Amino acid sequence: MATIYEVSKLAGVSLATVSRVMNNNANVSDATRKKVTAAMSELGYRPNSIAQSLASNCSNSVGLLVSELQGPFYGPMMSGIENIFRNQGKHVIIAAGHSDEEREQQGIEFLISRNCDGLILHVEAVSDDYLIKLSKGRVPFVLINRFIPELSDRCIILNNIKGGYLAAKHVLEQGHKNIAYISGPLWKKDAQDRLAGHKQALAEFNLSFNEQLLYQGDFMETSGFEGLKTIYQQGLSFSAVICANDEMATGAIASARELGLALPEQLSVMGYDNVFFTRHIYPPLSTINYPINEMGQMAANWILKHVYQKQTEPLQTMFEPSLVARQSIRHCPQ
Amino acid sequence: MATIYEVSKLAGVSLATVSRVMNNNANVSDATRKKVTAAMSELGYRPNSIAQSLASNCSNSVGLLVSELQGPFYGPMMSGIENIFRNQGKHVIIAAGHSDEEREQQGIEFLISRNCDGLILHVEAVSDDYLIKLSKGRVPFVLINRFIPELSDRCIILNNIKGGYLAAKHVLEQGHKNIAYISGPLWKKDAQDRLAGHKQALAEFNLSFNEQLLYQGDFMETSGFEGLKTIYQQGLSFSAVICANDEMATGAIASARELGLALPEQLSVMGYDNVFFTRHIYPPLSTINYPINEMGQMAANWILKHVYQKQTEPLQTMFEPSLVARQSIRHCPQ
DNA sequence: GTTATAAATGTAAGCGCTTACATTTTATGT
DNA sequence: ACATAAAATGTAAGCGCTTACATTTATAAC
Predict the structure, then answer these.
(1) Closest Cα in chain B to A75
(2) pLDDT per residue over B218-256, tens digit each?
(3) Which residues on A lie below 8 Å from B74 (Cβ)?
(4) Contacts of residue A49 in chain B, CB cutoff 8 Å?
(5) What CATH number is associated with residue B187?
(6) Quick one: pLDDT at residue A322?
(7) What are phi and psi of B14, to 5 degrees?
(8) Mapped to the 3 state alphabet, what secondary structure does chain B carry?
(9) What's the rounded Cα separation, in Å, for the pair B303 and B310?
């Protein structure tokens, strides 16, 4: 592999000049610039990005920590992020945290030890304190889907209260009065918020929230399955179930089918996230859109601006959910 | 950030010694090793991986090029790969090629310019010649889901002929005689192979392949939709449709519903890949399992062995598909 | 106690770049 | 033509490590 040294010799200039044309910043005359680029292409020269990083103290890489590399939620997020960075010649190093405190911390440290210039974190298990401490450190980061008051300017979040509200309102408008709710783990802020929005809509319709129709799930399909079964077996009647995400809604649908309930005639089901497969399941799932792709891009823009001092579109931290009405919600039969 | 130099000063040893305990290879006495590690933790020292890479000419990173970061197919693949490398302290740099020749080449060059020690490529658009030339280059790579005879030892592939055969056989065993087929783009080897296996099964059942029941799609949902509609409107009767992947099967299902066909009573549908959402769609889709996660891990092992000289489980290049029978295939009504 | 040998440690060059600063060349005004 | 400023180029010192080689220290055999 040719080095800058060989290029400089061939072009008959100094190292510094070659470096200058590479970074085309300083003043270089057209004549020498041409000589140098000619030499470069003759040698098939490619700059060694490792050496560049060491010398410039900038690795041009940003670390991305997600909970899972697979699954319908993270794909669009990573995609939005990679897209933006690729165009800027930055690269993204990916690690998975698996919603586990230790593995998330390891992931973050791994990314830092890799000299990432900045970090985009979608972390769930790590504590607020840890992140606040981290924010005092050398490497800047932005958080997706997590709100910490002390770090509010670097938290890119969805208005989950509104999302919960929209979901409930839609169901209520179809005349449902007895609505089961399968929440996420209530130690998670987003699960809390979605439920809060839900209750808010209920209140607006002068309905009280029935704790017996609440099941606390874990955002995974199986808990949706268990949740619906558990609530059903209590014997209380309900005509709709709202789930705090699409995966659990999928589980609830499977469960309903097993219980012999006709969908959506006997039971309306509502999801949350608008993950891509929601339109393929049956009945096509009504849900709340989570603009995760855009939020990923916004996180990337945050890094571009704060780490690389690039001009970007105006930064936005709070995103709004919206209703996606499909066929899993029917008018209340009675 | 503390450097090796400060550690050496604090521990009262030379740079080389510190480096030795970091890489714990050479002979270092227990006493000095202890002094050094103590100094390290006192300073909160973290090695600068960029400097390590430059000095050792090894970046400990492997490049991964996939067509898309999102979608049900690549997720499990990336996941399998990240998993293995993370445990070995290697990191993965991800780029997307979007099945486009230029972008795939750009992606590969991007990864190479990032000094990846090795590459895992899932490329579709780039030519065999390009890859053969690339294989003469400095950086080793392994191919997933592509077979090039000259590079056969580094091609990790699925036996698609067998997969196509298995799918058709299953449908044929249910008594179907008139079977539509929605293929992938037939310039792609995997699309060809799946179709070849399909024909092979047909022949075994003494049935001839009806070209009029073939539609060439592009592996995307929309083409499944179009495909079924097109075939249907020709007026030929058929009781089953086999699609060369699950996405197209999903499209075909949507199309069938629009045409007023009851599923699976009036039309049996078969997919391919066993992507995770196949069990959520309705009717639950019978399909062919593609062990993409395992194949990703195998690719990672290939790199571990050939690039980093690690011991790994024995390498395997050809993987076998298997039938996943669910409810989208019924006995032929007549 | 020698000497030969092995183990432990140190020295210093270099990986391929960037960049502050110094120097040379060119342009500008009078 | 000359002084002065601006533009172009060169020089050399790092960036934080690894590693070949040199040197010192410990170990063993006699």
Answers:
(1) B70
(2) 999 999 999 999 999 999 999 999 999 999 999 999 999
(3) 75
(4) 113-115
(5) 3.40.50.2300
(6) 98
(7) -90, 165
(8) CCCHHHHHHHHCCCHHHHHHHHCCCCCCCHHHHHHHHHHHHHHCCCCCHHHHHHHHCCCCEEEEEECCCCCCCHHHHHHHHHHHHHHCCCEEEEEECCCCHHHHHHHHHHHHHCCCCEEEECCCCCCHHHHHHHHCCCCCEEEECCCCHHHHHHEEEECHHHHHHHHHHHHHHCCCCCEEEEECCCCCHHHHHHHHHHHHHHHHCCCCCCHHHEEECCCCHHHHHHHHHHHHHCCCCCCEEEECCHHHHHHHHHHHHHCCCCCCCCCEEECCECCHHHHCECCCCEEEECCHHHHHHHHHHHHHHHCCCCCCCCCCCEECCEEECCCCCCCCCC
(9) 9
Residue type, A318: M
Same domain, B154 and B144: yes
- Name the least confident of A100-104, B86-90, B168-172: B86-90
Q: Are strands B287-289 and B322-324 parallel, antiparallel or unpaired?
A: antiparallel
**Quick one: which of B301, B319, B318 has its CA closest to B310?**
B301
**Does a structural domain hold residue B106?**
yes
Residue B147 covered by a domain: yes
Residues B140, B96: one domain? yes
Pairing of strands B141-144, B118-121: parallel
Res. B27: pLDDT tops 90: no
For B311, other C-beta atoms within 10 Å of its C-beta total 7
Query: Is residue A216 one of the residues assigned to a domain?
Result: yes
Q: Report the alpha-carbon distance of residue B71 to residue B79 in Å, rounded.
A: 13
**Residue B117 C-alpha from the chain's centroid:** 20
Does the CB of B57 sit below 7 A from strand C? yes
Give the closest nucleotide to A8 (alpha carbon vs C1'). Answer: D10
Instruction: Mark whether B242 and B188 lie in a shared domain.
Output: yes
pLDDT at B334: 65
In this structure, the answer to whether residues B66 and B210 fall within a common structural domain is no
pLDDT digits (tens, 9 = 90+) for A121-175: 999 999 999 999 999 988 999 999 999 999 999 999 999 999 999 999 999 999 9
* pLDDT for position B28: 86
- Residues A184-228: pLDDT tens digits? 999 888 999 999 999 999 999 999 999 999 999 999 999 999 999
Q: Which of B194, B173, B190, B321 is nearest to B240 (CA)?
A: B173
Q: Which helix (H) or strand (E) holds A133?
A: helix A128-135
Question: CA torsion sign, B198 to B202 to B203 to B209?
Answer: negative
pLDDT band, residue B127 (cuts 50/70/90):
very high
Count the Cβ atoms, other than its own, within 10 Å of residue B229.
Answer: 17
Residues B301 and B228 placed together within one structural domain of the fold: no
In a domain, A150, yes or no: yes
CA of residue A29 to C1' of nucleotide D6, angstroms? 13
Is residue A50 within 8 A of residue B115, CB to CB? The reply is yes
Based on the fold, state whether residues B146 and B205 are members of the same structural domain.
no
- A240: β partners: A179, A268
Instruction: Give the distance from residue A42's alpha carbon to the nearest chain B alpha carbon, in angstroms.
Output: 17
Torsion-angle region of residue B140: left (phi > 0), alpha (psi -120 to 50) or beta? beta
CA distance B59 to chain A (A): 8
Between chain A and chain B, the number of residue pairs with CB atoms below 8 A apart is: 113
Report the pLDDT averaged over residues B183-205. 95
For residue A169, give how far its alpha carbon lies from the nearest alpha carbon of chain B (Å): 26
Q: C24 C1' – A141 CA distance, angstroms? A: 45
